[in-house]
Amino acid sequence: MVKKRIKYYRGWFAVTSVFCLVLLTGIFAKFWFYFNSGADRSTALNVPPTLPESHVPSVTWLPDDSVTGRKMEDFNRQQIMKDYIRCWYQLHLSYLNGTATGLKDYFTPSALPKALQTVQSVSNTMQLHETDLKHNIQLHFYSADGQIVSFTDKQLLLKQRLYKKDGSEKIFSGEITADYDVVMLLEDGYWRIKNILKKEPSPLPPTDTVDINKAGLVQVKGKQFYCNDTLFFPKGINYYPQKTPWSLFWSRYDSLVIRKDFALVKSLGFNSLRVFVNFHDFNKGNVPPERLAQLGNLLDNAARVQLKVIVTLFDFAGDYRLLNLTATDRQLETILKAFRRHPAVLAWDIKNEPDLDFKHHDKEDVTEWLTWTLKRARAYDPNHLITIGWAFPENADFLSHSLDFVSFHSYKEPAELATNIDSLQQRVNNKPLVLEEFGMSTYRGLWSPAGNNEEDQAAYFTKVKQVLHQKGDIPLFVWTLYDFKEVPANVTGSMPWRRNPQKNFGIVTVDGRVKPGAKEL
Question: Considering the entire predicted model, what is its pTM?
């Protein structure tokens, strides 16, 4: 019995020893690899290896001082700004999280205590949400050894929201502009702030004005649309390619399909269409050249057959936090500056159905985003019309004073549509209205055995047209050109009783047959 116990303990000791040896070997191997391959600074120091694609504030280099020491190369300007903007981003995160632990990697030891004190004094009493939107950099000094730089960040624009410490109440929301004198040192391959001093904002040098030239573009006069002083009545259709709708559109863009479909739209008697720019497909604040080229190709194909296009921006963008504001600003700037003279653009639709976001986001935050984006859109493109595609006519008077025309959607019965239009016209006075989405699904099957058929759709179109004519010939955009074989689940959800009707709103079937309702339009 004793011998069996001895054998048991010896076996247990051997197994345990082997296990510990393997464990120690693994730990030793990881340490050896770490010290021989070099630590990842971003991991070790809590530093973002690159700025997130959602944080891309505008940076403009003003003319350098006449005597700056060493002349600065473009590459070094980029590196300095990358680390400087990264520092601001870390400050925003510190205020947001109420902790300043990450700041040690962006300030020199002599400058760090003041930065920590500032963050902690704010965080002890309130919550601060902010983002930096625009930097205007004037270089003063760049040392001969390339280790020290001095510059002024003129009229740095910060957008802020201030809340009570528990986040229960918003105290302030607005913009702050100031100058900052900055000294940075190059240490371990990274630029850190040595000193930063806030001052009153000073004037900026004059900038080139945007060329305002509206010739050949659609404009509003009174309640009507004109192009080249000729009355233009938008009669349009919402468009996705049949095989690649929604999130598949831009990733599988096919110019031959676009050309064929636009010819079909024209042959059906339409003169306009509406398309959607997916915020994420266009890579947030860093729009890829190929996406810009695709949008340009789409507009060129529309111009070829004399179609006007409402381009709806920021589709599926539903995050209104301040830290994401720079991404929307950069995407807006990139697209609008590229096409601000394109003759095919009827209007920029800033956002599709933002009133649906009122349910899940602070209405004030959504309004703030819309107001900011509208203002920036006017600056980037003063030539084209601007609207917002409201989901419900009850909300469509919102911000109407900032729009060229008021767009709304309605899938309700024609009688209710008529009542809603009467009410809306009273609230927006002389602003022209556009019914930007309406339609009826022709799905009748397992999940909707009593659904509408193609004759019902045609009758519905006829009644809607009568209402629009009676209310002052309001332009229309039907939903949509095609029936679809598949609809992405992220659009309608995965439930078949929701997805199947959504597949059959088109005026052209999946096999290419034109439905009777097309004639009524």
Answer: 0.88
